[in-house]
Design a protein that fits this description.
This protein is an alpha+beta fold and 179 residues long. It has three helices and four strands, in the order H-H-E-E-E-E-H. Strands 1-2-3-4 form a four-stranded antiparallel β-sheet. A hairpin with a 2-residue loop joins strand 2 and strand 3. Keywords: Membrane, Transmembrane, Transmembrane helix.
Length: 179
């Protein structure tokens, strides 16, 4: 009788121990799952941080591009066209790469007279900033007898704009490909 009771007690103890072991195993599995979830969250956070760094790098490259190609952007997006019609005088102006180009057209006796003036502005900085401007007049009194030549001047300016846009697009695409 005592042996049977001892055996029953042992069986009960074994059963309790097995249940405890199973519960411990379940807890360990839950902890492992939680660790895996935490690792996944950390990986996602790292990916987000990498994406943010990449976006910041692209923004920095864009700012550098804007800084170094300021004149191209100025020419492409702040392009001014002044048209004056006073006493048959036509005035065309644009600014490109620190150079001022002036084109003068005026109409007299059925002939177009074309004048060009190029003004170069250079700035030297020491303790104070001094600006030296030199003006040279070229091609005075060239007579243009038809409108075709004047139209061709405008077409050349638009071709220059298209070339600059193409160069800008190629630069941006190359930066994106490198990154």
């Amino acid at each position: 009788m005592v042996l049977i009771l001892l055996l029953l007690l042992l069986l009960v103890l074994l059963h309790i121990l097995l249940q405890l072991l199973l519960q411990l195993l379940l807890l360990l599995l839950l902890l492992l799952l939680l660790l895996l979830l935490l690792l996944l969250l950390l990986l996602l956070l790292l990916l987000l941080l990498l994406l943010l760094l990449l976006l910041l790098l692209l923004l920095l490259l864009l700012l550098l591009l804007l800084y170094y190609y300021y004149y191209y952007f100025y020419y492409l997006f702040y392009y001014y066209y002044y048209y004056y019609n006073y006493n048959y005088f036509y005035y065309y102006y644009y600014y490109y790469n620190n150079y001022y180009f002036y084109y003068y057209y005026y109409y007299n006796n059925n002939n177009y007279y074309y004048y060009t003036t190029t003004t170069t502005t250079t700035t030297t900085t020491t303790t104070t900033t001094t600006t030296t401007t030199t003006t040279t007049n070229n091609n005075n009194n060239i007579i243009i007898n038809n409108n075709y030549t004047i139209i061709m001047y405008h077409i050349e300016l638009y071709v220059m704009k298209i070339k600059l846009m193409f160069m800008l697009v190629v630069t941006i695409i190359s930066i994106v490909v490198v990154v």
